[in-house]
From TrEMBL:
GO CC aspect terms: cytoplasm
Ranges for domain Ketopantoate reductase C-terminal: 197-316
Gene3D superfamilies to which the protein is assigned, alphabetical: N-(1-d-carboxylethyl)-l-norvaline Dehydrogenase, domain 2, NAD(P)-binding Rossmann-like Domain
Top-level taxonomic group: Bacteria
Protein's UniProt name: 2-dehydropantoate 2-reductase
Gene Ontology molecular function: any one: oxidoreductase activity
Length: 331
């Protein structure tokens, strides 16, 4: 089995290293200093579960890799529409694309059998079908990441917690390709259950992302600080409650309470969300898949979601002002 990791950052390099350790042929496609360090020293993983070093093939040119059985996308969802030139050399007739993204995926309504919105495009994450044109729906395998990693320095991945990568077909079948990938990930020391309804996992994780990510960017607060501040904790609970109502209207029924979800976030401690890290690094914020698509689904299903709408408006403006210079002399 041949796996290409397109976007071998903190999560991508960790997954690639684990797969390689388990005996899979792995090719990491990375950039700049991280690329050079991994080429010279391999991928060094520092983990409470045990440190290890893996030496898969590393390149910045997908043409060197050629067709793969699986492409693991370690890119942010807001770069999917533009990744076509990098992805094309990796695709054979049956190549599967495993998108380890946060939030609502572009394939969300694909295969949602019997639902009134089956086959509908989620415009927020697939505007005009621009993502579907690059990532064909038939290739999609969903992946919900319950794992936290950071790049401690080029070529060095610090694994903080979690090893679970839930997999699933958009149509809910337990496919041979999912089982093969799951077995390879398990051989590398990861947890990789194949779920008959991955959308429930999507919503359970999204309950936290949709609240904590934008609020952390707006307040510069850590997970623990947001949970310990009474008014912010109440706002988080409201946003999670709205998200659960949207999930149920969209055909899912995640089995988790709001308080349990908040308490789990509090136990993470003084951790900065990925959105806050992106803000501090001057990068565009991953708003559309995490917040905007949930607001879109609220509109499609007729669920009132005022808190989500207000926070979305504020963080969207923050994203604009943080990446767009103010012209000299403007008011």
């Amino acid at each position: 089995m041949k796996v290409a990791v397109l976007g071998a950052g903190a999560i991508g390099a960790y997954v690639g290293a684990a797969l390689h350790r388990g005996g899979t042929e792995v090719h990491l496609i990375a950039r700049r200093a991280h690329l050079a360090a991994m080429r010279e020293h391999g991928v060094r993983v520092l983990s409470p579960r045990g440190d290890f070093t893996a030496r898969p093939h590393v390149t910045d040119d997908p043409a060197e890799v050629g067709e793969a059985d699986f492409v693991f996308l370690g890119l942010k969802a807001n770069s999917y529409a533009s990744c076509g030139p990098l992805l094309a050399p990796l695709l054979g007739p049956d190549t599967a694309i495993v998108a380890a993204q946060n939030g609502i995926p572009w394939w969300y309504f694909h295969g949602l059998k019997g639902h009134p919105l089956e086959g509908r495009r989620v415009e927020t994450v697939d505007p005009g079908g621009s993502v579907t044109a690059v990532l064909e729906l038939r290739r999609a395998i969903g992946c919900v990441v319950y794992c936290s990693t950071v790049i401690e320095e080029p070529g060095v991945i610090r694994h903080l917690e979690g090893t679970r990568f839930s997999l699933g077909e958009p149509g809910g079948e337990i496919s041979a390709r999912c089982e093969v990938l799951s077995a390879a990930m398990i051989a590398g020391g990861l947890k990789a259950p194949v779920e008959p309804d991955l959308r429930n996992d999507i919503w359970v994780k999204l309950m936290g992302n949709v609240a904590f990510n934008p609020l952390s960017a707006l307040t510069r607060a850590t997970m623990a600080q947001m949970c310990e501040h009474d008014d912010t904790r109440a706002l988080v609970a409201t946003m999670m409650t709205e998200t659960l109502a949207i999930a149920r209207a969209a055909g899912s029924d995640p089995k988790v309470s709001v308080e349990k979800r908040i308490d789990g976030a509090w136990r993470v401690g003084h951790h900065k969300t990925s959105m806050l890290q992106d803000l501090e690094a001057g990068k565009p914020l991953e708003i559309d898949a995490i917040v905007g698509a949930v607001v879109e689904l609220a509109g499609l299903t007729g669920v009132p979601a005022p808190a989500l709408r207000y926070v979305h408006a504020a963080v969207s403006l923050l994203d604009h002002t943080s990446t767009t210079p103010v012209p000299v002399g403007s008011h």
